[in-house]
Amino acid sequence: MGLGRSQKKRSFCFQQIMNCWTSKDWFDNIGRDLSPAWPVGSGYNGSDAVVSAVQNTPGAVGYVGLGWIKKYHLKSMALKNFDGYYVVESVKTIQAAGKAALHDPTFPDDFNQSMVWKLHGKDVYPDANFEFWTVSTRLPDPTMKEVKKLIVWALTTGQEEKYTIKTGFIPLPFDPFKPRLEKILNRLLPGNNFEIQTGG
Question: Which of 32, 65, 79, 115 could form a disulfide with 101 if both were Cys (CB 3.0 to 4.6 A apart)?
């Protein structure tokens, strides 16, 4: 059995799953790194290459995002979550992970923490994470105005299915997300009285 993997961010999340599940020996020798010393398998440049390798290698296992699973009609393996349930990756189960993280009072408001694996819930997929941007608070006013426009788009029109699910991403769970997001945006964009009105 071979293991294929692609984009470094996804590999980093997968390694966190392995570090949670497996032995101290795995943690000590493989650990969690952007370029790990994997014990078996081959590396590929991009998810399309991983998919091709898995499809052409009997018994192979690959690691790609939901968008590629849907695009190529691949079978998805169920992963054991923190509460012991085996959960298959889907829009529903990834969004359940996001909701679980945002309902957790220990999850930081600045999102500076991985949400992989250690979340509670029957339907919570354990290998999900937020995509995020890093934005400087010291941008010139004209630039910050453009940044604000982009943020507004991402949180409204950008949440539509054609920009999220159709491209392998999941719409944000706005109910628990809104209070945290307002804190971030009002700190990032002081004086703007930024309020989230809708998720799409």
Answer: 115
Q: Are 67 and 61 in contact (CB under 8 A)?
A: no
Q: Which of 63, 50, 49, 57 is nearest to 1 (CA)?
A: 57
Domain encompassing residue 182: 141-188
How far is residue 37's CA from residue 23's CA, in Å, rounded to a whole number?
16
| 65 and 26 part of one domain | yes
Which element (helix H / strand E) includes 86?
Answer: strand 86-87
Region at 41 (left for phi over 0; alpha for psi -120 to 50; beta for the rest): left
d(CA 172, CA 136): 22
Global confidence as pTM: 0.78
Number of structural domains the chain divides into: 3
pLDDT tens sequence across 128-163? 888 877 778 788 888 888 888 888 888 889 989 999
Do 82 and 72 lie in one domain? The reply is no
Q: Last residue of some domain: 33, 58, 76? A: 76
